[in-house]
Amino acid sequence: MRILVVEDEHKIANSVKKGLELENFAVDTVYDGPAGYDLAATEDYDALILDLMLPGIDGLAITRKLRQKNIHTPILILTAKGRVDDKVTGLNTGADDYLSKPFSFNELLARLRALLRRPKNSTGRILQVGDLILDTVTYEVRRNRQILKLSGREFALLEYLMRHPDKVITKEQIISHVWNYDADILTNTVEVFVGFLRKKIDRISSGPKLIKTVRGFGYKISATGE
Ligand code: CA
């Protein structure tokens, strides 16, 4: 696993690097924002560790720029600030986790490993299946560069499916994750909403049909296969 550490406090950067290398990670270190952004945008890392306050471009701006470029490498933000607001901003910007200084190396390692264990599509702001992209913060859904207009319920259903790509999801699972407890929903209703989604997602594209019916079980969203 290859990690980029962007941290202007050399002492912290170097001790993180040393510690991670002892755990068999490959680690690159840079000490300012622009160098960090350039490397993160051009090299293939498994995760980024970004300090929040950096010379040149700060960690949040780096995160935002990378996500805008559709680079979804997991990001752990380091910061001296422990304020809830900063954490919310960081996560909304597209960071995956957050660690306040001072931190213990073991906590950093545990969080990094948790990030690396996550299936690529299950967390984070942007979900992608094939050429279908869903932004969980702006609620924008695009396929093949076209913006799709979805109702709130269609969006929730699509988000749920896209968080479990290539997995069969039952209608009962959909009901319990997309509708609230009070809603009295029948499996027919799920079929109707899946039909709405298919019209919007699969009809506008000459690409593969993404929402598949698995007879007798439910549905699956996948860019490959039947
Ligand atoms: Ca700093």
From TrEMBL:
Residue stretches making up the OmpR/PhoB-type domain: 124-223
DNA-binding region: 124-223
Sample GO molecular function, one term: transcription cis-regulatory region binding
Keyword terms, alphabetized: DNA-binding, Phosphoprotein, Transcription, Transcription regulation, Two-component regulatory system
GO cellular component: a single term: protein-DNA complex
Lineage: Bacteria, Candidatus Gottesmaniibacteriota
Chain ranges of the Response regulatory domain: 2-116
Organism, as annotated: Candidatus Gottesmanbacteria bacterium GW2011_GWA2_42_18
GO biological process, one term: regulation of DNA-templated transcription
Protein's name according to its UniProt entry: Two component transcriptional regulator, winged helix family
Residue positions where 4-aspartylphosphate is found in the record: 51
InterPro entries: CheY-like_superfamily, OmpR/PhoB-type_DNA-bd, Sig_transdc_resp-reg_receiver, WalR-like, WH-like_DNA-bd_sf
Superkingdom assignment: Bacteria
One Pfam family matching this protein: Trans_reg_C
